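Researcher: Going back to the complex we discussed earlier. I've cleaned up the inputs and rechecked each line, so this should be the final set. Can you rerun the prediction on the complete assembly and write out the structure?
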Amino acid sequence: MVRVRFAPSPTGYLHIGSARTFIFNWLYARRNGGTMILRIDDTDVERNTEASLNSIYDGLRWLEMDWDEEYRQSDRIELHKKAAWAIFEAGHAYRDFTPATNTDDEATSANSTRGPWLCNPGMRELTAEESERRAAAGEPFVLRFRVPRGEGRTIAFADSVYGEQSKSADDVEDFALLRSNGMPTYHMASCADDADIKISHIIRGQDHLSNTFKHILIFEALKAEIPQFAHLPLLVAPDGAKLSKRKHGPVVSVTTYRDAGFLPHSYVNFLCLLGWSPKDNREQMSRQELMESFSLAGVNRSNAVVNFSEEDPIDPKAIWLNSQHLRVWPVDELAPRVKAVLAAAGLAALEPESQYQWVVDTIRSRFFTLNDFATKGRAYFADDFPMQPEAVVKLDAAPARELLRELAVRIEALPEFSEASVEAALRALAEEKGVKAGLLINGSRAALTGQTVGPSAFAVFAALGRERVVKRLAAV
RNA sequence: GGCGCUAUCGUCUAACGGUUAGGACGGAGCCCUCUCAAGGCUUAAAUACGGGUUCGAUUCCCGUUAGCGCUACCA
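Model: Rerun complete. Updated structure for the full complex:
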């Protein structure tokens, strides 16, 4: 019975690395008929905000992800405390009355040349009586795990991604379970919950790989079954540093990609390719294909760089992949999404629906994001659209303007308006005037769309309809 | 500093110890064409370094270097 969880702490918007972790968990659950659990790790009251909680929901909803069970750690603090004291009762934890040290003072902690910190002097050896007495006297303490020491104990586990892992218990410090205010630490709360809700596979970022040794100790002390672990390589910036909002800005937030006009399943596809491969050269994959192909064995071990820069704030491969999905996505599913983007830009879809969908289908092959429909595609949905300088150049190529106005007259007089009839009329006019058809074809595109690039000019005629075509050509 | 992890084109990645080290994005070039950041084709571009093991290492082992993570009463 596969039970996996994604456990974000709501201290910021949904990060793309977190989103990928969710996706891998979700894929694993769906692939194996398991249960996907969302657990909000909101025990850090100082940093939690309602806004970031909403951003997590928004992000997951946008990615079209779902889950089967949901928990909130703040509802379960009593359970965590109980678990901590059970560990204490079993003799695997002790009270440490050492006052909190100033963590800003780096010389006293991590960079000390005196060697690794393992525990505070004297506290492990306190007698039960003295420990009780000082606690009863109201002296503050943290509850620390009593890590087996000097017994030659090796903690080992087989990570589904990183393989056999082991570490001497002598290298693991006596980490805290309960703070001096009685509140559980992350390690305590997380493991107590994982044990309680019977998580079978913990799939999470590689930044927890070293923490896993502590977690195994906790699971053992709780007499809980130890889950299978799978750590995921991290997503990093081009300089190799961990992605952070302060340093790297909006690239790290999934809302950036939503707002940039990405298709959710395309962005999911992109995220999956960062650190995972189906190993058969496929890249563009539907959600169904991802579900069928995903396996932890396909996850690799080195960090993946999200390739962005000043000039290209979004990874070019993400954009390319989106364009590929944009081209093949069923039009009837794409059309409503385009409609939403148009509406946001104050534009209305065309009537009837069949014509609208035909236009969407016609113009999408040159677009990269949904937003392109409202920008590059504006001329198809509105009469006010910008004229590119290159388009003006095309029109200024004499005798383009004069002939386009003549073309307007002829199109208006056409007994029947269609791609074929317009083409015939245009070619006849060109021949008559002794100019190349290209002059009128390219001139038409420029006059009708304000652009020199786009679909076949005859498709443009059909997309706009006779009325707009005549109006725009006559007005050149 | 201690401990853990990682190392293939610029980027994402593929390669039961035996391949001309493959694919994709991006770059360059060509073709097609009524235009195009569309499509088709071509091309440049990588096994971090040094030692082993082996008939043969991208692949296994050791070391070096570099990067990342943990080393908090953060998560």
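Model: Worth noting: Residues 13 and 55 of chain A are 5 Å apart (CA to CA).
Researcher: Good, that matches what I expected from the previous run.
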